[in-house]
Design brief:
Layout: E1 3-4, H1 7-27, E2 33-39, H2 43-59, E3 62-68, H3 74-86, E4 92-95, H4 105-109, H5 123-131, H6 140-151, E5 160-164, H7 171-180, E6 184-188, H8 195-201, E7 204-207, E8 225-228, E9 232-233, E10 239-240, H9 245-248, E11 254-255, H10 262-283
Parallel strand pairs: 1-11, 2-3, 2-4, 5-6, 5-7, 7-8, 8-11
Antiparallel strand pairs: 9-10
Helix pairs in contact: 1-10, 2-10, 6-7, 6-10
Length: 284
Amino acid sequence: MAKLLSGKEVAAALDAQLAARVEALKEKGVTPCLAIVRVGERGDDVAYENSAVKRCEKVGVRVEKFILPETATQEELLRVIDEVNQSQSISGCLLFRPLPKHMNDDVVRNALLPQKDVDGITNGSLAGVFAGVDKGFPPCTAQACMEILDFFGLDVSGKRAAVIGRSLVVGKPAAMMLVQKNATVTVCHTKTKDMPSVCREADILIVSAGRAGVIGKEYVRPGQIVIDVGINVDENGKLCGDVLFEEAEPVVEAITPVPGGVGAVTTSVLIKHVVDAASRAVSV
């Protein structure tokens, strides 16, 4: 039976650390603040917003909301982002995407200053990840994978890792962050030949395929660490990952559950980035 890598444990530890850091910043006269910029009323956006607000309240981070209607123009949204960029009281910004179809995603997201991009969506932030420098912040889900590995003392140095998926949200940044930890990384995708054998060779498997249960027992072997990033809804209406948990769990050494794994850590990472941004501003 595999060790369960509980994201709830990781999030609880992060929250405790963040609460202490926020208190220390407040003693210096600085209150970390997250700006939430949302266009429209998408249900999943509102749900994540509510989760982020609760987590901010828990650790003492202030929240400022900028909510625009679905019919807002791109120019109106850019004015809001400029206000966020110029505000000395706002530490970081969460900009919900996808944006309405009449807006240019590249133009809008890159209008946000990297130092306030706590969700890792700008080209500047991604350049920082690939260059290994503190310019902006990495995407929260990719860093959540690293936080889980660190919390459970799973050293990746010298290990072989396979990342399934090559998105800029998880796959590519996670691969670069593993390289920075001295892992040897293979990025798998839809054109990868004999993917099961490639995955079985890995010591660490990070799965962000975007399809429920696509990774079965033929992809895993004993001794592996499996981080399942996927969040899907199965035919019974239950949350499930990209990994067939019931097939992988009896085989591998350690695995994240879904729900209760990577997703549980992502919001805490977002708040960590806000606190980091506030700390950087103080040190400038």
